[in-house]
Amino acid sequence: MLAHAEESGNSLPAHQDNCFGCGPGNGSGLGIAFTRDGDEVVGELTLDQRHEGAPGLAHGGAVSAALDEAAGSALIPHGLVAVTAQLNVAFARPVPLGRSLTVRARLARREGRKLYIEARLELDGHLAASAEVLFIVVTADHFFAHGAKPGDIPALGI
Questions:
Q1: Positive or negative torsion for Cα 44, 49, 53, 57
Q2: Could you give the count of Cα atoms lying within 13 Å of 101 in the half-sphere of its Cβ?
Q3: Which pLDDT value is given to residue 112?
Q4: How many CA atoms lie within 13 A of 9 on its CB side?
Q5: Catalytic hit among 17, 39, 68, 124
Q6: What integer pLDDT is reported at residue 4 of this predicted model?
Q7: Per residue in 70-105, pLDDT tens?
Q8: Contact between residue 138 and residue 110 where contact means Cβ atoms under 8 Å apart
């Protein structure tokens, strides 16, 4: 049985130290730290030249990764172990590099093993991109089959 993640105030733990989206030990990652805000998780990030697509603008893949990370982090307070099955991103405006961004996500509904999550990326309080994300609940064996060992993913209790 999965234990709920330990929290300090409203702060949520990183999935694991080297996680591309939230891991503090990944120098090439997005470095998003999430907190709980009601039924949402909220994170702040700033994309830089490592995340560039067109000159001065974030690559769509980096924006998508931030939305996917928020969606996965929205499951931590619920104690759910799941993986991304589908990520549908809608881009509303260009995302400039070097600007503070806010990413939000919440679990919208659950149907058996299917978890439907809504995520959004905001620039100056305005929608920059949004995503509808489908996660599928899995067991810890899913991660063990791919090389994880007990204790490797503390945010998920694995």
A1: positive
A2: 30
A3: 97
A4: 4
A5: 68
A6: 34
A7: 999 999 999 999 999 999 999 999 999 999 999 999
A8: no
- pLDDT tens figures, 104-141: 999 999 999 999 999 999 999 999 999 999 999 999 89
- Catalytic-residue membership of 152: no
String of DSSP letters for the chain: -PPPPP-BTTB---SSTT-TTT-TT-TTS---EEEEETTEEEEEEE--GGGBSSTTBB-HHHHHHHHHHHHHHTTGGGT--EEEEEEEEEE-S--BTTSEEEEEEEEEEEETTEEEEEEEEEETTEEEEEEEEEEEE--HHHHHTTT--TTS-GGGT-
- Only one residue has tokens 């120098």, namely 27
Q: Determine the Cα–Cα distance for residues 87 and 132; give it in Å rounded to an integer.
A: 6
User: Residue 7: pLDDT above 50?
Assistant: no
Confidence (pTM): 0.91
Tokens of 96: 């400039």
The two structure tokens encoding residue 156: 């998920």
Which amino acid appears at position 62 of this protein? A
What's the CATH number for 33-156? Answer: 3.10.129.10
